[in-house]
Amino acid sequence: MKGMVSPALPMAPSRQPIKRKFMKLALVTGVVLVGALVMGLVWWTRSPVLLADGNQLAKSQLFEHWQAGEIAVLVRHAERCDQSTNPCLGPADGITQVGSMASTDVGHGFNGLGMERADVFSSPATRTLQTAQYMFGKEAAKQDWLVECGKTMRDDVVAHKTAHRNLVLVTHSGCISDFEAQTGFKHAATSQYTSALFVSITAEGQLKVLGTINSADWSTVLRQRVATQ
Predict the structure, then answer these.
(1) Segment holding 111, helix H or strand E
(2) Residue 39's Cα: distance from chain center in Å?
(3) All residues at 6 or more sequence positions from 190 whose CB lies less than 8 Å from its CB, including other chains
(4) Local mean pLDDT, 10-residue blocks, the chain (229 residues)
(5) How far apart are CA 54 and CA 17, in angstroms?
(6) Model's pTM, two decimal places?
(7) Which residues does 99 contact at the CB level (< 8 Å), separation at least 6?
(8) Fold held by 56-228
(9) How many angstroms separate the CA atoms of 211 and 201, rounded?
């Protein structure tokens, strides 16, 4: 009818704000999921810290624990003859000449820490006995549990640790992996030849993993040792 104005139809609500909120929520959710995956991967593959890196030696208080006789350290044997093309010392189940030199260098590192109050045990395998011999210039006490290892590895280390005396255990990568799995590092990287995993053990048997020193890092460790004296 002329002169009459039709009532305005209500406008459809805009979908833009809803779309923006959805995209923002999706973005936040994605960031959270990616972060969780990254953190999960780091946790899954984490290994003991490298003590020669940054200020890890100071944080671990390795020197103080060693001075107090509170350290147990698991050392992997040197390079195997049967898995290398380097000249072998002999016999075939022993270590290479390269391995013997690495063992001697690691032994110098331990002597730099001081071996006056330390016991040295070795697996009875040829490669571990040779490694210990080149490290310290004498035969180590043979211990079958250092080649058998398994589910009791952590408890065996604690049981063989004498209060106020450090303990050096020359063993195998599988045994070190068993120990790591039982101390919170189930998926740690395989230990290197002649690497050393340090843990502190109090007189009451309380154990804490301090970290690893690889054979090439001993010069850094000893420099820091001199700086703290």
Answers:
(1) helix 97-113
(2) 18
(3) 173, 177
(4) 53 62 65 48 71 96 97 98 94 96 98 97 98 97 96 97 97 98 96 98 93 97 89
(5) 49
(6) 0.81
(7) 77, 78, 79, 80, 84, 86, 89, 127, 130, 131, 193, 194
(8) Rossmann fold (3.40.50)
(9) 13
